[in-house]
Queue: 3 jobs
Job 1
Amino acid sequence: MAYAPRFTITPGLLARIEEIAALRARIQAASVEVPWIPMLQKDARIRNAHASTAIEGNPLTLEQVRALDEGHPVPAVTPRSKREVLNYFDGLKFVEKHATKKAITHEDVCRLHGILAEGVMDQGKPGVYRTIRVRVGRHIPPPPEEVRGLMDGLIRWWNDEAGRWSPVVSSAVVHYRFEDIHAFADGNGRVGRMLALWELFRRGFDTNHIFAVDEYYWDDRPRYYAALEEVRQSNDDLTRWIEYCAEGIHRTLEGVQARLERISVETGAAKITLRPRQEKLLGLLRDKGGMAPREIWKALGVSKQGAMGLLKPLIEAGFVKRVGTKKSGKYVLA
């Protein structure tokens, strides 16, 4: 049976969605003009990883998560804590790779869970719908024999009906319904938030992948859990939940806008016009975490002098820096 969510688009929610659309348009207009997208992507990836895993009890700080992303050692933390964060990074790569996928399947959801939960589950199997009953606080999710059918209904709605609504609305619906079903024995929180992010990617809402929405949930976890519980107490009326999620997206976009303005003031980077090879270089540095000079020459197909000509404006603008010794140093995003 197809899922049929119940909610009302209130005047307040409609006004919030319109504000979000205007703010997003300003961010998109600014970001296409400047070369800081890779840095904003990196920042969003780290912030989402920290927030989503911290909600589930991971003790790593934001700076420790940043160190893991950059490949630095993080001493005095448990292997499981590291694995949870690294799994999140891998899960995000999976979602980004399939950001434009037209139809989501059971296999996609299970694959995502398998990535996020590998080596960190207390019960159940990664990538396999649960076969046991579970309890989440006061919430008792449906029995295991109903999970497949309920997920089928959600996936059908996601593929067939979600596009009728603003992605602000549809991402909130996907998020809540998955958490309510609690499809896996463990790790549902991270999966549900990642699915909501995936919907924003699929709908082209976060085209550049620079929004760290999970920080909103982490900043006030009691309110997050209360908002989920309120839906159940209101006979599955999602109106207040969608309003809550819309507030989170709005705050997230305000944060991105503030970062854009700060970087512009500090570096004047909005005046830089990137050459194609510079765009490629920034992307490579983001993905690899840093590159030695010879690696840059080879990857870009230019001479040593040509590489320095590409790097110099980026270094002067504060987007790239050199770290390490003169002999073994490399270039990284600043």
Job 2
Amino acid sequence: MDRIDTIIVWGHGIKYLDKILEYTNEKFEILKIKRYKIKNVKKFIKDVYSFDYAPFWHLKDKTKYLLNVPKEAVFIFIKNLNPNEDYFGEGKFRHRESKTLKNFKEFLRDKFNPYENNKRTHNHIIHATDNPTQTHCLLKMLGYKEGIKIFEEDKFIKLPYYLKGYKKFEIKKIDINSLYGNIVVGKSWDNFDLELTPLSKTPHFLGIKNIEVYQNYIDKFLGGPLGDYYNKNKYQNLIQNFKYLKDEYKNNYVVVKQNKDRFVILDGLHRASILYSQGYKEIIVCQVL
């Protein structure tokens, strides 16, 4: 049975974020990426590890190195499709966790932890949850009141977690030129605004011919306003293997909301851009009401 877990990339590991995400995407389904600026390091570390199986006093010495790394963290929420759970630890520290995630955590630490005298240090670049309850608590700590329930899926139409509040839908065909995207503009992931942009002028569409335009956009805003996992390799793979509303993707509609004579894309900007590049004049969408 699958479960929802979390990988936290600490400040000194963020320089490896692209590779960490690539490896993670190969092993798990990435649900959300959340970048976080830490105001009070000691409080933040205590809050994160307060959900751990071991008491914080036991972890204090092991985590004090985090006081001297950049004051930032990236939360990667994942669907662990094959947890392979087992018990680890001894005595009062004995606990149940995913062998799949535990092995993956050590793989990343072997790759990216600092080394001294050809030995891996314990200045770990990542932390990973032991169970979904910890993920639930972390989500609530970050301000998501529903916790892990935000990732529950609708069985009829596949909607991302952030659109679950909509209960009424209409499947319809519309002019593809009436599609707009809410595109992020600004200086960085924590200093930005949104701008309603015609589909033909989005970095998603322009990136089909010039992929660096798209990659620069992702690099600038990933983990802030852009919470889904994409990079140029993933997008190019989608372009080459694209299937819209076919086979296992039959419920993966481009989701829109009408704004006067425009339809604003709430989910599916990549798919709509590919269809537009292929010369489609009309597109079947799911309009939320």
Job 3
Amino acid sequence: MASSSPSSKPRGRAAALAALALTLAIPAAAQAAADQPTVDVALVLLTDVSRSIDDSEFKLEKDGYAAAFSDPRVLAAITGGPNARIAVAYMEFAGETQVHTVIDWTIIDGADTAAAFTKAVADAPRSFYGRTAIGSGILQAMNLLSEYPTNGARAVIDIAGDGTSNAGAPITTARDQALAAGITINGLAIINDHPVSYTFAHVQPPGGLTNWYRDNVIGGSGSFALEVHDFHTFGEAMVRKLLSEIAALPDPRG
């Protein structure tokens, strides 16, 4: 019987150690992503906190999210899906370098997890004041979505804002990149009916902000923009948006 060479065992041990090193080198983030449960929708709530939104309006945005995620219709849509759960993240944006993931990916599968998510949103301090870089916000939201293994789930960026993009990445370029990646972008255009003079062109562009959103921001399968004329109706508009996004219902303007 042939004997192994003196160096064969050390080589074998080295190969085993190399294989072990490769296994241990798998990034923790990738492993964490692989462990995420399968969901029906991966949704990024991308919220405008630019300087045209004052603190009372910012609070009403948050109150609107809380009202929407506690609505029985929204909870029924979430639990009625094939996987009976969605993944939601909450981001805030203002200027080009002012985009922040406030609440990372959170599984919502009923009233308790929905309430915990909206409480975390409500308790978080405001991230920024600045200009309005919607394109930069979309690119960061795309990065966040790329970290979640959607496994065929719908990927949606839900933008709420009160003005046009005036800083950061070109809005239509960012939008087109998101659409090419299979992401749907929906919009909630919050109309300021009494703007101060220096923000007029920003919050009331020619043709109106909602049409500007339709032309420059939204896109993808079933995409839509809703119009809100005061922050007190933000919650009901969010309900309509979430029902469409979660349950893939027809355009809520219909």
